Amino acid sequence: MSGGAANSVKAIHPPILERRTELMPSVADPVTTLVNGFFEWFGSLSIFFWKVIRAAATPPYEWRELIRQLDEVGSKSFPLIALAGAAIGVVISMEARYSLTRFGAKSMFPATLVYSVIQVMGPIITGLIVSGRVGAGIGAELASMKVSEQIDAIEASAINPYRLLAATRILACVLMLPLLTIAADAAGLLTGWFAQSLVEPLSFHQFIESGFQGATFNAFLPQTFKTAIYGLIIGTIACFLGMRTRGGAEGVGRAATNSVVIASLFVILADVVLVKFILVVFP
Amino acid sequence: MITADDIATARSEPVLDSRASVVAVNNLQKAFGTHRVLNGITLSVNRGETLAVLGRSGTGKSVLLRLIIGLEKPDAGSIFIHGQNIVGLALDRMGEIRKKMGFLFQHAALYDSLTVAENVAFPLVHHRKNISKTERADRVKQLLTEVGMEGNLDKMPSDISGGMQKRVGLARALALEPEILLLDEPTAGLDPISSGEIDELILKLQRERHMASIVVTHDLHSAKTIANCLALLDQGNVVIEGAFEDLQNSDIKFVKDFLKQS
Question: A147 to chain B: nearest residue by CA?
Fold first, then answer.
């Protein structure tokens, strides 16, 4: 009887090595799937980007659609970007005044505000807000067109959808991001100065002169124009996810959400790389 | 009259005159993952002919049309359009072939941000750049009149019925004066009167334009009305191809069952 019990226990609890062997496929499979999925995703993204580049480089050029997208990405994002820039300007102004007063460096206020807004906050805030507004918009629009076969209808009408839909949107993002960044910077500087003036009168002329004293093009231009790379990222990710959508309304929602999340993440990662790159190339 | 032997020969051997037909598919195979949809289809259509492709849902009828217009790539086989094999053609070269083809999608696939008139004008805006705005507007009006939609130029696709959307889709498919017309379930989801009107419209267009047409449908009555030749698909194979009478006279059990149920 005891021998039988021992056998049954052995049957239920096989040796550890055997159990590990049994467990291995169930552990390895999700990892393999994840790794394969990761490379498949980047592979598909690369192929998509190559198709867009090739389509954009060859005529006919879709000028009308490009102008529409410049308006969609640029003009329609302007109020939101200006408002966000203005809010950031006030916040930096209050924080900087408090910290600089504490360390007895109040005279550094204009330069601190100018450098903080133009070099750091303006570009990243613009990138993130455009990721949210434009990324979600492009992702949802193209996903909706994809699931309702409108993109197939464009292709069936002998029109290259990579040229008409993707290239125009990506190019609009690339061209508009630096301009929107300048708008965010200007709004931030204006409200930052205004917030400071309410506490301690300071003429705008004096603020600008003091803030930009000794500034070179290298200090501001690369930081502003790096946002073209953010535009490339936002446009490409949103178009890619939108144009490969499957699964009806749920797929459309997923494409919109993923466009925002992935584009925002990539913008932040790109910022890390670009800041280092700019510091090395434009010291 | 096509005999059973003729059909068997056509199915077992590649189409020898594929370069003479307007559309010829040869041993076409397509699978999605492990699911094999088309299992070596061979069909051809000449100018002025209408081929109706029938079969149960999921037998690859719509996939066949998507392969012909190049929206999907086959795993094996060839597709000849005016004698040119389109398999593997680059997107822009395929575009030149597509200008000769009109495609009506099952759910019309109208651009929802454009009006009815803008939808029909869309191919003209992109491919007939030499015509003036007035000429383009006239052409759009003429196309919409042909399909009985002349009074709905400024309506949005969401404001018109399914049948009307199909008419507009048909007008858009005809905009570039195609030589080949591909229709995916033109009467699906429509009431019998609208279905009849769409059938009449297709027949009228065929009489006037002499296009080569392939119509995918579940609707046997519609297929009988508009097609000179019918092909019945099952599990990715052509079970029978011929005139309606050939299907009626067939001894194949699947054909009998299909006709009985339809």
Answer: B109
Q: Do B98 and A51 touch (CB under 8 A)?
A: no
Provide the b/e sequence for A211-229 (b: ≥16 CB within 10 Å): bbeeeeeebbebbbebbbb
Suggest the residue from A149, A243, A246 to mutate for an interface test with chain B (most B CBs closer than 10 A): A149
Interface A-B: count of C-beta contacts within 8 A: 60
Flag if A153 and B105 touch (Cβ within 8 Å).
Answer: yes
Cβ of B95 within 8 Å of Cβ of A156? The answer is no
pLDDT tens-place values along chain A, 283 residues long: 344 444 444 444 445 555 555 555 555 688 888 888 889 999 999 999 999 999 999 888 889 999 999 999 999 999 999 999 999 999 999 998 888 888 888 888 888 999 999 989 999 999 999 999 999 999 999 999 999 999 999 999 999 999 999 999 999 999 999 999 999 999 999 999 999 888 888 888 888 888 888 778 888 889 999 999 999 999 999 999 999 998 888 999 999 999 999 999 999 999 999 999 998 888 7
For B90-144, what is each residue's pLDDT tens digit? Answer: 877 888 999 999 999 999 999 999 999 999 999 999 998 889 999 999 999 999 9
B256 backbone dihedrals φ, ψ, rounded to 5°: -60, -45
Domain for residue B81, yes or no?
no
User: How many CB atoms are closer than 10 A to CB B19?
Assistant: 12
Residues written for chain B = 262
Number of domains in chain B: 1
- Does B232 reside within a domain? yes
What are the structural domain ranges in chain A? 1-58, 62-281
* pTM, entire model: 0.83
Interface of B with A in 56-85 (CB under 8 A): 66, 69-71
DSSP summary character for residue A228: H
**Residue B135 tokens, joined:** 């000429």
CATH number at residue B227: 3.40.50.300
Domain that holds residue B160: 49-67+91-261
Please give, rounded to a whole number of angstroms, the shortest distance from the CA of A159 to a CA of chain B: 7
Partner B contacted by A65 (CB < 8 A):
no
Distance CA B262, CA B245 (A): 15
- Interchain proximity A157–B123, CB inside 8 Å: yes
Contacts of B176 in chain A (CB under 8 A): 157-158
As a 3-state breakdown, chain A gives helix, strand, coil percent values, each rounded to 5, of: 85, 0, 15
CB contact under 8 A, B92 and A58: yes
